[in-house]
Amino acid sequence: MEGKAKYILPTETIYVGEMKDGMFHGEGTLYFPSGSQYDAIWENGLAIKGTYTFSDGLHYDEKNWHYCDGYDRRFYTEILNGLKPAGMAQLTNMDPPRKIPKGYYDCGDG
């Protein structure tokens, strides 16, 4: 594969970008099934420089990462929207949280 491409991996992750000799090469983005994405500059299949964005819009910053770092344990949606009153605390980053049917539980994997 050469030039611009859209490649769907077996994990349902999708790569959209430039390719050379069947490898990611140039500018390209990996779109993950969770809704997050990784925008990068690729060289012979390896990411040289890139940025990761979580599905909720939070950008990962390797040097200045202050989210959930021991000093501030708020969820990202709480940082954006503020804390809720006592007794209405969030248990996950999802607001509102997903509905869990009666007789089931959320195993919290992921």
Automatic annotation (TrEMBL):
UniProt keyword annotation of Repeat present: yes
GO CC terms in record: motile cilium
Entry annotated with the keyword ATP-binding: no
Pfam families associated with the record: MORN
Alphabetical keyword list: Cell projection, Cilium, Flagellum, Repeat
Localization, UniProt: Cell projection, Cilium, Flagellum
Protein's name in the database: MORN repeat-containing protein 5
The species this protein was found in: Homo sapiens (Human)
Taxonomy of the source species: Eukaryota, Metazoa, Chordata, Craniata, Vertebrata
UniProt gene name: MORN5
